[in-house]
Amino acid sequence: MGQTCAACHTAEPDGEWSRISHQRKTPEGWLMSIARMQVMHGLQISDEDRRTLVKYLADRQGLAPSETAGARYALERRLNTMESFESDAFTQTCARCHSGARVALQRRPAPEWEHLVHFHLGQWPTTEYQALGRDRDWLNLALDKMVPELAETYALESDAWTSWQASAKADPVGQWRLAGQIPGRGEMHATLSVSRSGDDLYSLELEGQYADGTALKGAGQAIVYTGYEWRGDLDIDGVAMRQVFALQGDRLSGRMFETEHDEVGFDISGARLGGDQPQLLAVQPGYLKAGSSTELTLVGADLEGDIELGEGVTLEEVLERNAGTLRVRVRAAADATGLREVRVGSSGAVTLSLYDSIARIRVLPEYSVSRIGGNGSSTPRVYGLFDAEAWAAGSDGIANTEDDYRIGIVPARWSVEPFDARAEEDEDTRFAGVIDAVTGRFTPGAAGPNPERRMSTNNAGNLKVVASVEQDGQSLSGSAQMIVTVQRWNNPPIP
Ligand code: HEC
Ligand code: HEC
């Protein structure tokens, strides 16, 4: 830091540096700050030195796990997350150009929040003329209202950080069981073997299978920042994938997504094999029709002890049993409906949903954005990916009431329709892209003007994504809105 940053930042007593020593943030946050120094201020630094500095700063001036808890979606690249914050002032002032999570993932004292406000206006004077800026005295509101609020909500010093720094950190080395689900392909489970390859550096080997039995295999490496921020890069069956996990004792959680298409990814939970007690991660599938018999896979670690399935569910046969997988054939009684808690030995509970019939289908995400791309442009297409979530009517037997309960993600047939009259007139379903009827993956159209469209506009569109599910010869459907829009030119690690 003395060599690369000292040209502009001043040394302070106790070995601190102006600005740099008075902030805490995630590894991605530090990377973005330093990248900004390069782009805006002409800092010269090698990629290797930058990596070293990001690690150094994230370890010493990071965030405790509880401090990132509500905002990990941004690190996990869940770009369709609809944010909501208690403070309207915050939403309007600080979460209109970028995510509010970018702010919530930083800690600073008041003077540092104040510098940040000045930096914004100095760098982007148009802040004051844009919507939610020109109708108010933006600068003074930001300084007088937001700075105190930010310094209070996201203070530099916290008990969480002090105690996290003092606590013993989990060792990633060992074998982990992972349970995951990815839109379009469904569930998977895998074993991840982790060995040390350097200081906070690990080699990874992953071997698993999808619910349909197809194998999943890959290898790569991970680095752990701040004692828990696990970032892995793997090649899985020829596809580059990234892991953004939080490591907590014998548990892992987060997302594993394609490096080039971060919209394509698995939700992941993990448990360490050889831990203190049985850990159950998932029951796959997580639902069972009343009166039917089916095969369930219980995924977890150290799965020893009695299998508890809940009232009305009988264990017919254990098909496979080892520390990480329990494959069983079970039967649900004809009148068994509602939610059950499944346990193995002293493990925590995982929900199994028993249903008689599907009452409604919800398409997730309810609102999403996909993007045109390719066609010689510098950014790839951003796909649309969807899940059809089945819900049952609760004890009142009426759908769309408070006692409805979630059955789970079910296979569906997918199609798109114009979202409104405008979209119909512009033939958005013809130009904006194509949805795969089986997987529900939407591939947006090519980037650039399209002479076939009115005024040669691009292939943007406004679509209704429809999932249809067959049940007893009848078709049930649900829908969601998807905007197909232009490329995102600026795509920083934290949106
Ligand atoms: C060429 C000059 C220059 C160099 C070299 C430089 N910085 Fe900066 N830095 C600035 C200026 C100017 C600001 C204030 C404006 C801003 O935030 O962009 C700043 C602000 C910052 C901030 C506060 C940003 C914020 O969000 O409030 C951080 C953190 C930072 N620098 C880190 C670094 C680190 C780490 C290095 C060395 C790897 C470095 N800088 C090297 C010029 C520089
Ligand atoms: C007019 C649009 C706009 C508004 C409004 C805005 N920001 Fe930003 N903000 C930006 C841009 C652009 C960047 C730089 C992104 C980059 O370098 O990748 C940024 C960067 C940041 C960063 C990262 C800086 C670093 O180096 O650590 C933080 C934190 C931040 N903004 C907080 C805020 C807060 C707090 C507010 C409300 C007071 C706010 N922003 C309002 C556009 C905006």
UniProtKB/TrEMBL annotation:
It comes from the Bacteria. Residues 174-272, 278-356, 361-494 form the Quinohemoprotein amine dehydrogenase alpha subunit domain. Residues 3-161 form the Quinohemoprotein amine dehydrogenase alpha subunit haem binding domain. Pfam families: Dehyd-heme_bind (PF09098), Qn_am_d_aII (PF14930), Qn_am_d_aIII (PF09099), Qn_am_d_aIV (PF09100). This is Quinohemoprotein amine dehydrogenase subunit alpha. The lineage of its organism: Bacteria, Pseudomonadati, Pseudomonadota, Gammaproteobacteria, Oceanospirillales. The gene is peaA.
